[in-house]
Design brief:
CATH topology of the domain at 274-337: Ubiquitin-like (UB roll)
Bound molecules: guanosine-5'-triphosphate, magnesium ion
Shape: flat
Largest sheet: 6 strands, mixed
CATH superfamily of the domain at 274-337: Beta-grasp domain
Length: 339
């Protein structure tokens, strides 16, 4: 799962990047940066407490921080958004704190400015491609009529300022996937609130949104778990903003986790709801997919109730499943394969 972190200049993109990944963004450097936000999961923690593995590996959301939008239009279109073209979801940072040199915060207006950058970028892409198709046609090459029709639909939507994510037929069309249309990606607004104020701000938008205190959250991210929970309690927070963001991304994208567990490693893996065992095997290694024989599966809750593999086996809770088995959230899976 790859998320692109975008926003206008000074919205607090670096701060939110730090709050989500624990990594410092280099001050003043507008370079694109990458990091990972771990998917905290008490089930995986429990598995590790049982197996005491050499490695404990949570699932993660990969994060790509883009350059700020809206500075120099021609540059921003080309450079700012290039690295997020293949993102599955966009995290859009909106400033909601006062800053001496800047206008008073207006997250709704900022959301509209970002959206309009996405629409313009997509419009340029659509126009270029349609021009290309027209040229090819003059040369007698026919091309794919379905692609052209979809592009015309996209153009009409964009002209009416409608993001492509609202146009189900376009957003999911395989013919258009390669273009990486930005306004077709689901967006999560992160409203970056001041430390002293409250974090109950909401904007009027169809897209999901999370208000958090970015600076505070970027401090929480640096603390060890004990200190962090004290800190959270002091500020009346039930969990770190990072966990809220990751959970929301999981639910927006309809993602679930399954586990592999043993003395070497306890690890959580991300799959889409509805994905089958063969595809899940491919997430781990292409050889496991290629040589797939069976998946041994036990549901986390059953496993926990038994306290271990042996007991779960005795009780017959391990199921042998085939390639088309639909993986469930919390499954503990052992793949048998042969290469
Ligand atoms: N009060 C307050 N200030 C913040 C917050 N987040 C960022 N800032 C301040 O706003 C300024 C910009 O924050 P950055 O995180 O660097 O924002 P950015 O979007 O990466 O900025 P540029 O890369 O310079 O466009 C810095 O001076 C931060 O200290 C916040 O949540 N609350
Ligand atoms: Mg920055």
């Amino acid at each position: 799962m790859k998320a692109g972190l975008i926003g206008l200049a000074s919205s607090g993109r670096d701060t939110i990047f730090r709050a989500l990944t624990g990594l410092d963004a280099v001050p003043g450097l507008n370079e694109q940066r990458q990091g990972e936000a771990p998917v905290e999961d008490p089930r995986l923690d429990w598995l590790s407490s049982v197996f005491s593995p050499k490695k404990h590996t949570p699932a993660r959301v990969d994060l790509h921080l883009s350059r700020p939008l809206g500075q120099n239009p021609s540059e921003s279109l080309k450079l700012s958004l290039e690295k997020v073209r293949d993102a599955d979801v966009l995290l859009v940072v909106l400033r909601n704190f006062e800053s001496p040199a800047l206008e008073p915060p207006d997250p709704l207006k900022e959301a509209a400015a970002v959206e309009s950058e996405l629409l313009v970028t997509d419009y340029v892409t659509v126009e270029k491609r349609l021009e290309r198709i027209a040229e090819e046609r003059k040369k007698g090459r026919k091309g794919d009529p379905a692609e052209q029709e979809l592009l015309e639909l996209a153009k009409t939507a964009l002209e009416a300022n409608a993001p492509l994510r609202d146009e189900a037929k376009i957003a999911s069309a395989p013919q258009l996937k390669g273009f990486g249309f930005l306004s077709a990606k689901p967006a999560l607004y992160i409203i970056n609130c001041p430390d002293g104020g409250d974090d109950s701000c909401r904007i009027d938008s169809k897209s999901p949104q999370i208000a958090l205190r970015g600076s505070l959250e970027s401090e929480i991210c640096r603390l060890d778990p004990g200190e962090a929970s004290e800190f959270l309690a002091d500020y009346g927070l039930s969990e770190p903003g990072r966990a809220r963001v990751v959970k929301t991304v999981y639910s927006m994208m309809d993602l679930i986790s399954f586990f592999t567990a043993g003395e070497d490693e306890c690890k959580a893996w991300t799959v889409s709801r509805g994905e089958d065992a063969l595809s899940a095997a491919g997430k781990i290694h292409s050889d496991i997919k290629k040589g797939f024989i069976r998946a041994e599966v036990v549901a986390f809750d059953d496993f926990k109730a038994c306290g271990g593999f042996n007991e779960a086996k005795k009780k017959g809770l391990f199921r042998l499943e085939g390639k088309t088995y639909v993986v469930a959230d919390g499954d503990i899976v052992h793949f048998r394969f042969n290469v």
